[in-house]
Amino acid sequence: MSKKQKKSLLRIILSAVLLIAAAVFEHIAEPSWYIALPIFLVPYIIIGYDVLVKSVKNIAHGQVFDENFLMAIATIGAIATGQYPEAVFVMLFYQVGEFFQNWAVGKSRQSISELMDIRPDYANLIKDGEITTVDPYDVVIGDIILIKPGEKIPLDGEIIEGSSSFDTSALTGESLPRDVGVSDKATSGCVNLSGVIKVKVTSEFGESTVNKILELIEESSSNKAASEDFITKFAKYYTPIVVFCALALAIIPTIFTGEFKMWLMRALTFLVISCPCALVISIPLSFFGGIGGASRKGILIKGSCYLENLSKAEIAVFDKTGTLTEGTFSVTAVHPTDISEEELIEYAAYAEYFSEHPIACSVKSFYGKEIDKSKIHDVKEFAGHGIEAEIGEHKILAGNKKLCEMHGIEADDCEQTGTILHICIDWKYAGHIVISDKIKENSAKMITELKNNGVKNVMLTGDRDAVGKDVANTLGIDEVHTELLPTDKVNIVEELITKKSKNGKLLFSGDGINDAPVLARADIGIAMGGIGSDASIEAADIVIMDDDIGKIGTALKLSKRTLKIVKENIAFALGIKISFLILGAFGITTMWMAVFADVGVSVIAILNSMRTLREKN
Ligand code: ADP
Ligand code: MG
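Structure tokens for the assembled complex are given below, as produced in the milestone run.
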């Protein structure tokens, strides 16, 4: 819990205790109002001062109608009509709601940044020669902290003792460690690698680099879902309407009946009932719950809008290699023309040395021997084709048929099933290597799951037609496009996007090799975290941390469940609200009933939201 959260919890407990004490005292002693009022005012001020201050400030800024205003006017009105305990309780309950909301936001933020692995959990504070472990939030400017090797730097500061090297990769992507010494800057979020250092803190945690990055993540996660936007827009119209209705309720009947106090009471009750706590709290909470629940399963969702989009998925597009298949090819046959098998493999491995493509990695591991880098020159990689390189004295081509055709060389026609790696030496065909890939264990299950949810499946691949069709058939994929270049993949996705229905969304999942543009273009881009490139994790909206393709099905189910809960909460809260508002206007409900109606609705809505967090497969 942060300092801020502890403080608000303390306020809640303190004012609750004082409220109970005041209520008991009032019940026993039955004091007159000038004694009762100050006794209740103490807990009221403790719990409500910030709401009052905020509403005054907002009015000064011309933003009158927000929830602070609603709370302030309803409770002040209650006090004016002598309903002291009600006033304190309403404010207290509102703060409990806020507390819960902050707590939930903090939790989900923690789990998201845990995945990003940059959030510092503690700082070793040096005070009077003693070292204590504290929350980074509790460290102030000028404090001295100690950072041991292997620890994250919790706050920004300046090194005053010791020297070390920092791993800055989480912040900069730079993989080389940086050497640092006295009077160098220590940036939070880096990892201290080698030495023990003392750092004088130069900014509070709220202003620190790591917190700013966390805020960025949060902002990306404030890529708000349409349903969340709905609440913001809703509040903008709702609050003034309610306030004017209350005003009308206090004035108009009074003109006819003259009973001002009674109608004022009804108007105030009306205002208290109208507080949309339940809606305001439960909808973001449902989304946070969904995102949090997903992150526990190793699915990182960058924003609630992606969760919402996912629930509307209509077309799912997959890259083949490394996504539906393992991407670790095994060599099944080697067919040289003039040279030996060993030589053919050797040339292939040398040519592929600098490539990260799954084919390259597999060939290198099959070759298994040390590669002499000094022999490799002039490497060019053609996306969707293969490699051209100079190995020793020879020009080597290693790639598919398209690559050979590009250089006007005729490649063997291959009957074998499998991906073919053709090799040419000095512009002459030298043979081919047949390699084959394995379909991932969970691919078929996931495709069936998507189909059962009415999602159409499309597979894209740069591989041979025979191989692509074979994989698609085995998995039962609806539509398959083969022998594509990276740009073809973007074009096909564009086309599919225009074909789908207006509200339906297109999902694309790839391993990030040659498909980052498609990931960014799709409504929902899903990247595989483990083997995917950094670029694809950046471009993606959802990252599956452990490469388990089956988790796409899990994520889809989770999104549908979350959205169902959100809709339930909206309908439930609005329904109860409107009926109580009508009852309140006719004086059928009292202020206490109104308070409990709101507590009840909020609690039920929150409990309902919490279901998104619970495990269920
Ligand atoms: P996929 O759509 O199957 O993920 P890519 O677009 O990454 O495939 O590549 C398409 C085809 O281009 C591969 O099947 C392979 O024939 C060829 N290719 C691409 N990169 C390489 C490489 N580094 N070495 C050999 N062949 C390659
Ligand atoms: Mg690929």
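The CA atoms of residues 250 and 264 lie 5 Å apart. The chain is about 55% helix and 20% strand. Further analysis is deferred to the final report.
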